[in-house]
Structure to design on (315 residues):
């Protein structure tokens, strides 16, 4: 119950921050820009290698999955790290983290509540992207069946379910980025370092995936997991979705997870787990001697020690 209370409180704090709405607004603008451009410029078309790109003007259900292709490189990691990389660091910078730790709620509940709030924000960003693009596309091109990349025609109701499933599959690798940003936010206590580090983390996987000669290993890298939803619409081999559901985890130095943990990393988020020991044993005032001494003085106050306050004797 304490974790649920912390989670609700963290959601309230996110709702009061400007950067939360900046990320949600950027997701909505991103979706609206595609709808407006494709509606106004009827002669322009997407590249032929984009899944469902040829079906955009035939059905409004084709555009939401197409947006996932263009958001994989920098869009999703940037918006995700905007809040996940700040949720702990901002508390430390404003010197409110030590105040939270002195309350009756344990550090484990506080840590779990913040992690759940960051994950909820990631889901909200994808929901806004998919919802805005779906409404705009349906108003522009209607609710019609979709022809998949495999050549089959899917009914409109079934296609809508596939769109929802595609966003659910896409959420899993985005949570990997969010967990790494949360890890950096907890360890470095620096919002800028967490944001840049999360972007470099995603970019590093993009560069590794582009290397020649890595063969089947490429299917288990993070960029391949961003494209796992394509198998829902008949693109790729039959095992693509299975790899997308199992191969979320990246065995990174931050997570230090075992091969068995890599299979279930979509739920356990090893980067988040590896940051917990550092949070559990770290003084909120660390790194700055003045802040550390302030934290020690705080611990000696009558409220913390239970002793009676004594007034200083006049000289």
């Amino acid at each position: 119950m304490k974790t649920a209370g912390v989670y609700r409180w963290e959601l309230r704090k996110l709702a009061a921050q400007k950067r939360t709405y900046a990320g949600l607004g950027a997701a909505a603008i991103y979706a609206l820009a595609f709808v407006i451009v494709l509606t106004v410029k009827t002669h322009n078309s997407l590249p032929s290698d984009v899944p469902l790109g040829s079906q955009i003007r035939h059905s409004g259900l084709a555009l939401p999955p197409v947006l996932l292709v263009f958001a994989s490189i920098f869009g999703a990691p940037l918006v995700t790290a905007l809040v996940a990389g700040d949720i702990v660091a901002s508390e430390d910078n404003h010197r409110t983290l030590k105040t939270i730790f002195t309350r009756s709620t344990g550090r484990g509940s506080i840590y779990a509540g913040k992690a759940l709030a960051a994950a909820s924000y990631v889901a909200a960003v994808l929901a806004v992207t998919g919802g805005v693009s779906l409404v705009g596309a349906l108003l522009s091109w209607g609710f019609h069946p979709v022809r998949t990349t495999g050549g089959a025609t899917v009914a409109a109701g079934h296609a809508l379910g596939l769109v929802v499933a595609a966003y659910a599959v896409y959420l899993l690798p985005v949570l990997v980025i969010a967990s790494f940003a949360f890890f950096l936010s907890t360890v470095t206590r620096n919002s800028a370092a967490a944001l840049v580090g999360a972007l470099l983390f995603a970019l590093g996987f993009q560069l590794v995936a582009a290397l020649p000669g890595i063969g089947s290993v490429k299917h288990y890298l993070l960029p391949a997991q961003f494209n796992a939803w394509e198998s829902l619409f008949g693109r790729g081999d039959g095992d693509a979705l299975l790899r997308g559901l199992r191969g979320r985890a990246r065995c990174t130095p931050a997570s230090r997870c075992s091969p068995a943990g890599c299979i279930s990393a979509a739920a356990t988020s090893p980067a988040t787990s590896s940051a917990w020991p550092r949070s559990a044993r770290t003084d909120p005032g660390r790194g700055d001697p003045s802040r550390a001494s302030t934290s020690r003085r705080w611990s000696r106050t009558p409220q913390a020690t239970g002793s009676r306050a004594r007034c200083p004797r006049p000289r």
Summary: Residues 236-268, 285-309 have pLDDT under 50 and may be disordered. The two ends are 51 Å apart (CA to CA).
